[in-house]
Amino acid sequence: MKLFIFSLFFFICSFSSSVFADRVGFQDKSSAWQNIKSDHFIVLYKKAPQQFVENTLARAEEDYQKTATTLGFTRYKGWIGSSRVKIYIYDDAGAYKNSSGLGWAAGSVVTRSRTISAYPSASGFFDSTLPHEIGHIILRDFIGTDAVVPLWFEEGVAMYQEESGRWGADADVLRALVEGRFISVEDMSSLELSRDSNVELVRIFYAEAASLVRFLINEGETYRFARLCREIKNGSRFDWALKKSYMKYQTLQGLEEDWKDYLGHEKSKKH
Ligand SMILES: [Zn+2]
């Protein structure tokens, strides 16, 4: 039961950040914020403990370096100075909720305005929330804010940055396959999620997104994944970019078949 609550919490965290963040109207961005800066981030806070604020800045810098490397963005220049990403640290869950309207979320990101918002007591802040949201920002900084990519791709990249990398996702996907709840890659690519979406559907969607992106990065050679992102950045449609960079995946169905085979083999290796 404890495990269930844990995973539900984090799915809600990432669910909120991607699906609703662009529509979140944060109310309290103007007054009485103190700040500290590093090369790539500025952390804004009011009453958050100084140590937490300093740790946030240090960890954000670490995640910044790590994210580009894990995605294979070898010549990625990133950003500096005035383009710093803003990380708003609200005093507590109540202040965050009042401002964002996202009472059940641990953090959120708006990639267009390069803003992350969270609060200190958020469980998993350093291991999940912060690297996840920085993953969103770096992906969008690389491919461009107007690039059109499937939601599963965007969320999968962000989850790949979390300390756990959502390792349990493969088992969840296998279970969904066995129980007939699996969502095809094609259906996932057109699926629209909202606050009213079925919770179980959303949970499987996130498990599949995490598993599939990890498959693309780990099993398909990282340089191919970086090439996929470069093709998207240069204006290719996602399916064309996939074809050009992975060659063997001429269709989303082809990718799905290989991914399922891989999951099946991984399972048999464990037995
Ligand atoms: Zn997310």
Distance between the termini: 25 Å
What Rg is obtained from the alpha carbons, in whole angstroms?
Answer: 18 Å
Strand runs, count: 5
SSE order: HEEHEHEEHHHHHHHH
| Order of neighbouring strands in the sheet with most strands | 1-2-3-5-4
Oligomer: single chain
Q: Which distinct ligands sit in these coordinates? A: zinc ion
SS field, number of helical segments: 11
Shape: globular
Major sheet attributes: 5 strands, mixed
Helix content: 55-70%
Report mean pLDDT, rounded to a whole number: 85
How many domain units?
Answer: 2
Please, could you describe this protein's structure?
- The chain contains eleven helices and five strands.
- Mean pLDDT is 85; it is low at 1-25.
- With 271 residues, the chain is α/β, with parallel strands linked by helices.
- It is 56% helix and 8% strand.
- A hairpin with a 4-residue loop joins strand 4 and strand 5.
- Helix 1 crosses helix 5 (151-160), helix 4 packs across helix 5 and helix 6 (169-178) crosses helix 11.
- The protein folds into two domains: 2-143, Glutaredoxin (3-Layer(aba) Sandwich); 151-269, no CATH class.
- The protein has a five-stranded mixed β-sheet with strand order 1-2-3-5-4.
- It has helices at 2-20, 50-70, 93-100, 125-143, 151-160, 169-178, 185-190, 199-218, 222-233, 238-246, 252-269, and strands spanning 34-37, 41-45, 85-89, 107-110, 115-118.
- The radius of gyration is 18 Å and the shape is globular.
